[in-house]
Amino acid sequence: MASYYLDLLIHWVFIVVILLISLKLKPLESQKLNNPRLMQAHAALEAWTHCMTSDPNKITSTWSGPNVCNYTGIYCAPAPDDSTIFTVAGIDLKNANISGSLPEDLGLLTDLDFFHINSNRFTGPLPENFTKLAYLYELDISFNQFSGPFPQVVLAIPSLRYLDIRFNNFAGDVPSSLFDLKLDALFINNNKFQFSLPQNFGNSPVSVMILSNNDIKGSIPSSVAKMKDTLNEIIISNTGLTGPLPQEIGYLDKVTVFDVSFNRLEGELPGTMQGMKSLEQLVLKHNNFSGVVPTSICMLPKLKHFDCSNNYFHGPFPKCPFIKRKHNPGKFMGF
């Protein structure tokens, strides 16, 4: 699988194409009047406006009449199963400061490819009818005020590859089946989840994963080694992780960012870390690691930033160009 960034670039090119089509190939009046998909979209968006309680920037002031393809933030394109029919392919209302909730009627947008409503003030749960969004590839509801348990509906969206629900108020357990989804990117950080990393954690094919600022019990499973072919960045900071780092992290030779700072991890650093040949940023600060720092870390060819301050390491300290011992005994920091 290509890296997350390549996949994201390819998909954004696809989205740009959708936007250009939406701008240049507006459906004919006859299509608007006789197109059941646009009629369904009109019903869905009208229902959504009734669930909005505040729109200070008047983003939805254009949401009037049957021509939904002219609505601000709504993007139309030929339908994926019939290029002669126009349909709503994307919604982008990011940074709009809209408040309200999401109605079940949004499930009528069955051809939706991307749904971006990050940085608003939406509340409540996700609609169960999102299971009908068979083509949905990107779901970004980050930086809102959604609440309730983990949105199980995302587990049943077949085409989903990018899931971003960070900075909300979701709480409770995270289902282990999340890590079986064929995602390219997973962001669930800064919620109120309480869970343990399951044994199938390593089944996730993501390139980027951020789980920080939740309550995670236990340790990193050894199955993390199974992520070696796809994983580029992993950040699990400030979660309460315990135990040692598994020896298997040495298999992660494509990882560029590894951040497990502000946890309660302990023990010595695995000597297998010498296998993490793509590492550029290694952040281990504010844990309970002990022993010596392996000299093999100095040999990682791409490492630019190494912070292991506020642990219980002791000398001899490796003579790395990017590491500096602090004055406090047993604590030092890399740069």
UniProtKB/TrEMBL annotation:
- Is Membrane found in the keyword set? yes
- Whether Transit peptide counts among this entry's keywords is no
Localization in the cell: Secreted, Cell wall
User: Which Pfam families would you find in this protein's record?
Assistant: LRR_1, LRR_8
Q: Which domain of life is it from?
A: Eukaryota
Which InterPro entries does this one have? Leu-rich_rpt, LRR_dom_sf, LRR_extensin-like_regulator
Query: Which residue ranges run through the membrane?
Result: 6-23
Q: What is its main location?
A: secreted
Q: Which UniProt keywords apply?
A: Cell wall, Glycoprotein, Hydroxylation, Leucine-rich repeat, Membrane, Repeat, Secreted, Signal, Transmembrane, Transmembrane helix
Could you tell me what this protein is called? Cell wall hydroxyproline-rich glycoprotein
User: What organism is recorded for this protein?
Assistant: Arachis hypogaea
